Amino acid sequence: MTGLVLCEPTELYNILNQVTKLSRLTEPNYLCLLGIVLGAAIECGRTLTHLTRHPIHILRGGYESFSAMYHFFRTQKIIWMPQELDAFQPYPVEIMPGRIYLGNFRQACDPKIQKDLKIKAHVNISMETGPFFVGDANKLLHIQIEDSLEANITPFLRHLCHFIEVHLELGSVILVFSTMGISRSCAAILAYLMHQNEQTLKRSWAYVKKCKTNMRPNRALVAQLSEWEKVVLGDIVTDILDPLY
């Protein structure tokens, strides 16, 4: 099946929720074929491989599986006006399917998103105070650091990892967020993945980058993550001088 790639539902969810100036949901330059039979989808995909340089993604489980997992994306509406498409608001991306989400402050303040994703705990890494779980230290971890090169997240990393671990054991769904969801919250997710999986910054970075393509912890946070890698693995393995970081 050269040119064909099986796409997991969580991958499609994250693709749809990428955002630059506008939500990826408003992107007109793609073709989406929905079918019931996997075999038919593969045959259509094979035909399309001759028309593009890019791989054709076949959704594992099809629409039924995807809509069962993300029912809040379903709609009976067929025709959309351009202004309606531009008004689409992306959801937080999925880091651990159905368990850990990564987003921004606006998403953390949206009651519909909290309900749809069944969010039960927040990790807020910003100076802003959100409307949910205020005063409940069991459900809210608020790490108040600025979005600047002077920010120091290191003293909070052990507690951060413990907080997430406890909620995962309880079966809670967690939203990790910062103001824009690009720097501080991404650094927190990277630190957790390094700790939880005992893996390098490089490997964790590649994983989060696949989930959220515009993630970009600032240089000070990257340096602190490099030191965290030494704490987790006993040595610094990732070369943060690489332009990738």
TrEMBL record:
UniProt cross-references to Gene3D superfamilies, sorted A to Z:
Protein tyrosine phosphatase superfamily
Looking at the UniProt entry, the stretches that span the membrane are none
User: Which molecular-function annotation in GO is an example for this chain?
Assistant: protein phosphatase binding
Q: List the GO terms this entry assigns under cellular component, sorted alphabetically.
A: mitochondrion
The protein's matches in CDD domains, at most eight in alphabetical order, are given as:
DSP_STYXL1 (cd14517)
Q: Supply one GO BP term.
A: positive regulation of intrinsic apoptotic signaling pathway
Query: What SMART domains does the database record attribute to this sequence?
Result: DSPc
Instruction: Give start and end of each Tyrosine-protein phosphatase domain.
Output: 91-234
InterPro entries referenced in this protein's UniProt entry, alphabetically: Dual-sp_phosphatase_cat-dom (IPR000340), Prot-tyrosine_phosphatase-like (IPR029021), STY_interacting-like (IPR053272), TYR_PHOSPHATASE_DUAL_dom (IPR020422)
The name this protein carries in UniProt is Serine/threonine/tyrosine-interacting-like protein 1 isoform X2
Recorded name of the encoding gene: STYXL1
